[in-house]
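hey m, so remember when u said the tokens were messed up on ur end? i reran from scratch. heres the input so u can diff it against urs
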Amino acid sequence: MGAGQSLSRDRASEKSESIKTVAKGKNAEVVAKEIRQYRVEDHFKLQWDRAKTLYELISQRILELDSAFTTHPVKAYISFNIQGKNVVIIKIRQSKLRLELLRTRPEDLKDPEKRVRYMEKSFEHFNQYISLFDIENEDDIDYAIMLIK
């Protein structure tokens, strides 16, 4: 599977209505210009080939876990949702991926190597516990999938 194929599969689901069909007039045109639909490709800079490869591998594996998973790219991250609720967030870095496991603490996970960290003050800021795991190479993907399960 080529790089373009897997990334196009991860695009956000297309909306059936646009702001122009819902509202008419000058206001709709102004709002339509301000709304931005983000794509997975928007998160990668030109020289970030390593992060792009890691993302393609993990996203494919996450989507295989459950057919209910959908991707939802936004400005700061790419989330994997089930029924509209974020389950996992991936933040793209230059040579690695930061995996955020939502609504979990490290002690809630089966983490034999103790590689998961707790995001300090996540409950205060986001009203939920968040655990962090960095994916730096292909070997980390299997460990990450074990954590997500």
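this time it looks ok to me. The radius of gyration is 17 Å. if urs says something different then somethings off w ur setup not the seq
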